[in-house]
Amino acid sequence: MPRLRIGAAGMTAPLVETTGLGVRYGDVTVLENVDFRIERGEIVTVVGPNGSGKSTLLRAILGGVSPARGRVQHAPGLRIGYVPQKLVLDPTLPLTVARFLSLPRRVPRAAAQTALERAGVPGLEGRQMAALSGGQFQRVLLARALLSRPDLLILDEATAGLDQPGAAAFYRRIEEVRDETGCAVLMVSHDLHVVMSASDRVICLNGHVCCEGTPQVVAAAPDYRALFGEGTRGALALYQHHHDHRHEHLEGAE
Question: Which residue segments constitute the domains of the chain, with CATH numbers given?
């Protein structure tokens, strides 16, 4: 099937690169011939229907599944932070945020405070994990991922269960983390209307790479429209509004 590749970064040393990646679960091919790369400082979002292989791509990058063919290459010394879709904790377990951040090894108090501040939830150290709201819980997971000072932050449906304002606020924080730390961000998400405003590059996956490029390019691509429908024009409209508004704000500051 023809592929559309537009806006690929021109740097020569990607943080992660897959070449001809194929993954099988038994007799089922989940990913086939996936070429992918992410550069330092990029925010890249992978979208696609259920069963399209999005989470499998992340697991292959993280080393959780072995390729049936192709290869996955990491930059030397690459540090990865990971925010899962969800984490289930026993609600009767007395576990403070500070203690959670110190598992499995102790984290200095100052480092925990800095991570929570960067994640947008300062002052939660003494709160019980079981008492956190859904949004606070995900921010704590983000803080935990940031403790390793990652070069690459990976989020797998990290806003699942949050309402749209909560998801939008979470993605804005991710942009701020990227701007503050210079890390790259790789996200899997179904929040099309929000993701478009937070991404530098979008990859549309359906077992293979259907199309990729800037949000404007992908939102207009026939393969993307075929998968998500004409209603995805709204995602592009939100993307344009967000970036036009930011541009106006910058002009006003000059």
Answer: 12-49+79-253 (3.40.50.300)
